[in-house]
Amino acid sequence: MELIPKQETGKQYDNIKSVKCADEFNAKHKYSEACNKLFNISDWCKTGDSILKTDFCLCDEEGKEVTRDPKIGDFIRINLSGPGSVTGKGFDWVKIEEVVTKGEENDYEFTSIKVRPAACPLRKVDLLLIF
Predict the structure, then answer these.
(1) Are 118 and 94 in contact (CB under 8 A)?
(2) Beta carbons within 8 Å of 76's beta carbon, 6+ residues apart
(3) Per-10-residue mean pLDDT for the chain, 131 residues long?
(4) Which of 86, 99, 91, 82 lies closest to 117, judged by CA?
(5) Are 94 and 76 in contact (CB under 8 A)?
(6) Total H helices, total E strands in the chain
(7) What is the model's pLDDT at position 18?
(8) pTM as predicted
(9) What is the pLDDT of residue 17?
(10) Which neighbouring-strand residues pair with 111?
């Protein structure tokens, strides 16, 4: 499994943080906290110290806001500072392609969410309203 795909076009940004813990118990607790933060997409805006405000929202396959853990096929609605995308209904969108949680293999655990830029899922709803 390719955890991080090779960057082929566009900009790349890798965000990595490591924490050293006193013992295995504390390490597992920190890891659990990090996983909770990763899955709580609507609170991602609270983790940065940036002057620019960016809001994130977990949405289902139709673009409706949901409050649950992310799953494959969901979308993340991104509201960047400044004018939004017309085609994205004022937002940028990414679609969740993969959610991976691996247990203690080779003395480590990992959790990841793989996303890819996507078209606005709200257009599907608009088309249904027209007909």
Answers:
(1) yes
(2) 41, 56, 57, 58, 59, 70, 93, 94, 95, 96, 115
(3) 72 78 93 93 78 86 95 95 73 94 76 92 58 46
(4) 91
(5) yes
(6) 2, 4
(7) 83
(8) 0.78
(9) 76
(10) 101
